[in-house]
Design brief:
Layout: H1 4-18, E1 22-26, H2 35-40, E2 45-47, H3 52-64, E3 68-74, H4 75-80, H5 83-92, E4 98-102, H6 120-124, E5 130-133, H7 138-149, E6 155-159, E7 177-180, E8 186-190, H8 194-200, E9 207-211, E10 213-215, H9 219-226, E11 233-240, H10 245-251, E12 259-264, H11 275-281, H12 286-297
Parallel strand pairs: 1-2, 1-3, 3-4, 4-6, 5-6, 8-9, 8-11, 11-12
Antiparallel strand pairs: 5-10, 7-9
Helix pairs in contact: 1-7, 3-5, 8-12, 9-10
Protein name: Transketolase
Pfam family, one: Transket_pyr
EC number: 2.2.1.1
């Protein structure tokens, strides 16, 4: 199966052909995939070199001229390094773009901590007015990319990953999707962690919701799943643990509930290893999730 990033350049290249407002801004990373698009649209595919602050600043300038820029590089270089430019050039100036990251969390362990950004969504959450998509499959990435580009002049962050669920679901860019119903609690699986959550909760009497758009947070969807009596909630996110616990607590503020946030830990894992080893070390594999979810909700398989 191809990856989400494999879909990125072909999808956006087609959008360049279809919509004269669309532009692409790169900082070396990913430029080869746009070779043909650069030939067709040299004025709308710009490579600024290894200058991430300029990457964001140039995209914001293009947005001010009426273009719809799609900005791409690794998450650590797209969100963390030029964060001041993201905050000021888009937010303060009241303009928008589509930021599309790669190498989410620990997707490329050999790159070391400089190429990891598990805190990217938490950092974006400090800014006002950003939509955040976290697809869990290449097909979903394609849908959400098109949704993001078509979203007027809104500010959108699309988080691509090499991790993927086996099957795509019909995501709409807005709401959580209930994929299993139960009575002992709600487990929200974000993006590429759905398969692990479904395996971990097999036989448990819990509701599983699937989230690929995490900002704005689907307050109404969680409240429907929690019911009028309230319930306990487990958030399983492929980035910094606890990123969405405040949003879940706010959604259920008037109902009795507890929230457990599972995700990438704060401790830096200094051995390269593999993606699978990092997943297990952070307790995000199905076996670890089964123990942690079952312990928090007080349920066992078949009970």
């Amino acid at each position: 199966m191809d990856t989400m990033r494999d879909r990125f350049a072909p999808v956006v290249s087609r959008l360049l052909d279809e919509d004269p407002r669309v532009a692409v801004v790169l900082a070396e990373i990913g430029k080869d995939a746009f070779h043909d698009a650069i030939t067709r649209h040299p004025e709308r595919v710009i490579n600024v070199g290894i200058r991430e602050q300029l990457l964001v600043g140039a995209a914001a300038g293009m947005a001010l001229t009426g273009l719809r820029p799609v900005v791409h590089t690794f998450a650590s270089f797209l969100v963390e390094r030029p964060f001041e430019q993201v905050k000021l050039d888009f937010g303060h100036q009241g303009t928008g773009a589509v930021l599309v990251s790669a190498a989410a969390s620990f997707d490329w362990p050999a790159g070391g901590f400089t190429h990891m950004a598990p805190g990217d969504v938490a950092l974006m959450d400090t800014l006002d007015g950003w939509t955040v998509h976290v697809p869990g499959h290449p097909d979903e990435a394609e849908t959400l990319l098109r949704h993001a580009v078509a979203a007027g002049d809104d500010r959108v962050y699309v988080r691509l990953s090499v991790q993927s669920n086996q099957q795509a679901l019909p995501v709409d860019g807005e709401r959580f999707m209930t994929v299993r119903e139960g009575r002992a609690g709600v487990v929200i699986a974000v993006g590429p962690l759905l398969d692990a959550v479904l395996e971990a909760t097999q036989g448990m009497d819990v509701t599983v919701q699937y989230a690929t758009t995490v900002r704005p947070f689907d307050t109404a969807g969680l409240r429907r799943a929690a019911g009028a009596a309230g319930t306990d909630v487990v958030l399983v996110e492929p980035y910094l643990a606890g990123t969405s616990t405040a949003a879940a607590n706010d959604a259920l503020a008037d109902l009795p509930h507890r929230v457990l946030g599972l995700g990438v830990g704060r401790r830096e894992l200094r051995r390269y290893g593999t993606v699978e080893e990092h997943t297990a070390a952070h307790g995000l594999d199905a076996r670890s999730l089964r123990e942690r979810i079952g312990g928090f909700l007080g349920v066992r398989a078949g009970v």
